[in-house]
Structure formats: structure tokens, C-alpha cells
Amino acid sequence: MTQSLSIAVIDYEGGNLASAARAAARAAELSGIAASVCITNAPDVVLKADRLILPGQGAFADCAHGLDAQPGLKEALLVATRKGTPFLGICVGMQLMAERGLEHGTTRGLGWIKGEIAPMQAPGLRLPQMGWNELNLTRPHPLTEGLGTAPHGYFVHSYALQATQPETLLATTDYGGAVPAIVCNGNVAGTQFHVEKSQTVGLRIMANFLAWQPQTLRAE
Questions:
Q1: Which of 103, 152, 184, 196 is catalytic?
Q2: Beta-ladder partners of 169
Q3: Cross-strand bridge partners of residue 161
Q4: Active site (annotated) includes residue 196
Q5: Average pLDDT, the chain
Q6: Considering 91, 116, 157, 184, which one is annotated as catalytic?
Q7: 3-state class of 179 per DSSP?
């Protein structure tokens, strides 16, 4: 009998938990993947999970402090990803992967992706960036397979990743210039847009994530 894939949606009071869990369950169903999805802040569950999802909305500092406030949760996340568990950060969950955030002061991030989360510079355009925008894929990757031509994601943000390394970028979007939209370092990846609100494209990315077998671990 095929073992069910265990998917942990990490609960640090960062918002969008139920939507992310529903998207993961739906992507598994559509892909024929046997999976169980739970929303949890229990370190032992995080350590045993086959896939980790970190949603997020709001301010970088609030989300970072929320993660720190859950006893043992951040440490479990670090241990699990270090041993190779695939990880997906969504919106602020992706931003937390950076070295630091500059929203509401300077706050340390997880440091998995080089760069910082800083105010967007988009002269003449409305901020926050809100709505559908095209994804420009920068290189082939299992997470972006099958997205078709001119895929779009649903964005809501006024801060973005800056000064990152080109090799970590899987996709950008154009909003007053190139804005990182999907990043990846070994077995950890993140999307600036909301995959759980991005309909067919979001479900395909989520399904790709559930099937993903990273060949390398994140660089320290």
C-alpha cells in the first residue's frame, strides 16, 4: 500500500493557513497523490512531515516574531529543512527565507536566500502591488513544469526581495522592474505570490511541490 504523504502547514499565527491547506489537499487530489494535510505548531509534527508549507500575510517583522514565539517551532523547521525536507514559503513565508526584512525596523530572517526584503520601487504604479501579474520563468525547474505560456500569479505586497543571487531565481514578475516571484535554494523554495489564490497555475505549482524530489540540500 502506498504511504500517504504528510504535509504540515506551519501555524505561527501568520494568516492564510486554511487556504494553503485546502490548496495542498486539492493539488494532491488532482494529481492522484495520497496525502494528509495538517495545520500545526507542534515541533515533533514538523520534524516528521514529508512536506512543509509556511504561509504568511502582513508585515515581515510580525511574522518573524510570531514564528519565534512558538516554542521549538523555528528550531524544528531549521532541523527538518537541513535534513532535506522540501519546504515551500508563500508570500511573507517566502520573504522570511531572506537574510533580513526592513518592514517595521530591521528583522532577521531565516537566511536561506541572499538579500533583504525592502520597500518596492515602482514609480507611477500603485502600491501595494495587488492582482494578477505574469510570471517570467528564468530557468527550467521541477516546480515550474507545465505552467504553459504566460502563466500568471496573484500578488499582494508592497515589500519585495532585493539584492538576491540570480541563481536562486526561478521566476520574476514585472512591476516597475523585475521583482523576484519564485526563489529556490536546494530543497527550500518560495513564491512571492499567493499560490493558494492563483487558481490553475497555483494548483500546478503546489502539485509540482508535492511531487518534488530535490537533488540537493539548501546551502548554509
A1: 196
A2: 183
A3: 117
A4: yes
A5: 94
A6: 91
A7: strand
